[in-house]
Amino acid sequence: MRYFIFTFFVLISTVSIVQAQPFTHQDTLRGSITPERAWWDLTFYKLNVSVNPVDSTISGSNEIHFTALEKGKKLQIELQEPLSISKIEYKGKSIKWKKDGYSYFVDLKKELKKGDSGFITVFYSGKPVVSLRPPWSGGFTWRKDANGKPFIATSVQGEGASMFWPNKDHMYDEADSMTTIIHAPKGLTAVSNGRLRSKTMLQDSSAVFEWHVSNPINNYGVNINIGDYVHFGEVYQGEKGALDCDYWVLSYNLEKARVQFKDARRTMQALEYWFGPYPFYEDSYKLVQVPYLGMEHQSSVTYGNGFQNGYRGMDLSDTGWGLTFDFIIVHESGHEWFANNITYKDMADMWIHESFTNYSESLFLEYHNGKNAGFEYVRGLRSRINNDIPVIAPYNVNASGSGDMYYKGANMLHTIRQLAPSDSVWRAMLRGLNQEFYHQTVTTNQIETFISEFLNMPLQTVFDQYLRDVRIPVLQYRLLGNTLRYRWNQTVPDFELPVQVSVNDSTLWLKPNDSWQPLPFSVDSLRSFKINPNFYVIGQDLTVHSSFGKE
Predict the structure, then answer these.
(1) Which of 219, 223, 308, 377 is a plausible cystine mate for 161, CB 3.0–4.6 Å?
(2) 1-31+308-470, which class in CATH?
(3) CATH of region 474-548
């Protein structure tokens, strides 16, 4: 998934207020569950696309299958310009639609009753938006490989899957399964989600590839990749048995990929241990080389990290540990659990994808290199936190919050982990999330409630502090005589986070609030006061400040 790099640490000492943004009518149409979306349940897509690199155009159709949850006759779908719809059919006949921005309101003419099912076929064509900075900007990437052959890929999170195909473009409703048929140019291979069902050669030596996904799939997880691909693979014996792992790379990168992609097996070992079985055994696991950095397309993880360790050869943690694994393989594969198995309903809750997946990098290191390695890595990421705006964005307008959802979100989870009674309980919680919300779309409230209840801890103010506020909790302390006192500062109301500290030679747990509290024992002199560094909080010694002389 798109990965934001932040280079400055900013401590904000005031409560954050979400800045007003000029959300539009289209933002609301795209980001909310409108009446024209709510009445029908998406069940299946059959996407058929022809890709022409000569003029950067595409054309095709999409069958949108549905079941009525209640009576209704108007469906809302999306297709973004400059692509256009030429015809929509229902029961073999053309039907009318009304266009509002890039939302289309399709009139079925006759009202359906609850339980009725059917499908519409949408025909479309045009020049899709070209991504200027994939994957950070959405659209098509049209490149040439080192041999001058077309190298094409899609990446559309945020801007939406409707950038290249017509669909119900809201994350709350996923197709239960999907077939993608791609007509690729002569001599090239098309790779998409799931398993390859067939390859049909045409008279002009071009080919049609049919891929099928048998599990629910979010719309931005659908992708098209076309290139001079070669294939190799392996079978991983995982928690649910034999998992087919397939790797598609440009022909001249085969030997480099055979070496670098060994991290895929190591990733599966670590993440199945922490998160539970890979969620899409039926659809296999793939790494697919693309002409951009990479993204978490379901069962078709895209890769463009240059066959090197780190993030483009860089250690994001500045600890050395980030250069011991291929960042894109680990991070984007981690999204198979958090993004593709557990998917946010509203883009405002993107932290659910990115915080857990960023933390999966630390868990990968812990599994293979020990706890100290994982802990050092996640703490090292703190220097990249901005604390600019809240992690959670406004709802129902297709907006995402601060990029701090990566590094700050991971450190929030790492902080909460310190409260768990054992590593086994923490692991059980992570696996429990993937069991409880298996193949589901979820809200922040569901995730927060599950974690709080599983760990049997009142964590709501902790989530509020790190996800809805920009301030980092400050643990203030001071020595008055032989009494050491402490309190929380710069926190949300009633902030509740126990914290482990060492005072001189004693290690103990404190339960601070916003009032000064004394230690339960006397301290003749304060030689040291250290907060367990695995808590993402700040310590502040106020002993010398006379302004704090009164209680």
Answers:
(1) 219
(2) mainly alpha
(3) 2.60.40
